[in-house]
Amino acid sequence: MENYTMEGRTYRYYGQEAPLYPFGYGLSYTTFRYRDLVLSPPVLPICANLSVSVVLENTGLWDSEEVVQLYLRWEQSSVPVPRWQLVAFRRVAVLAGQEAKLSFQVLAEQRAVWVQDWRLEPGTFTLFAGGQQPGQKTRAPSEVLSAQFSVTGTARPLHGC
């Protein structure tokens, strides 16, 4: 085998074709609402980490758990990258009618791309937060919020940070 690219070999690289059972697939006995997605700072230096917060509200009648998922998308990259990359997830129990504010850290190394070694590149990124993958079609309603942030500086090896 001489071609080690993942293009066409895993659903992360299939393009617009959605997987039959993506990560986080399943049903809930209640409904959740996501709001107040905040990325801080919205413009960060190449080696900095991103702070993320989101509010999850149980709008249904039953106490339940939700798997909150964060995905990262590169808007432009010097090499092929996945449509989006899972960068964090957390199972959260929320009582009926209550809400929880969640905080996450997206590390600089999670933005790295492979170009003969792991490199950080400047550019624009989109972060998605929700109970499923972005664009996933399900019978149970779920929402995915998104927000963009920018990375400034010059490209550098990850070990140079």
Automatic annotation (TrEMBL):
It is an enzyme of class 3 (hydrolase). It catalyses: Hydrolysis of terminal, non-reducing beta-D-glucosyl residues with release of beta-D-glucose. Keywords: Hydrolase. This is beta-glucosidase. Its EC number is 3.2.1.21. InterPro entries: Cellulose_deg_GH3, Fn3-like, Glyco_hydro_3_C_sf, Ig-like_fold. Gene3D superfamilies: Glycoside hydrolase family 3 C-terminal domain, Immunoglobulins. It comes from the Eukaryota. The lineage of its organism: Eukaryota, Metazoa, Chordata, Craniata, Vertebrata. One of its GO terms (biological process) is carbohydrate metabolic process. Pfam families: Fn3-like. Residues 66-133 form the Fibronectin type III-like domain. GO terms for molecular function: beta-glucosidase activity. Belongs to the glycosyl hydrolase 3 family. SUPFAM superfamilies: Beta-D-glucan exohydrolase, C-terminal domain.
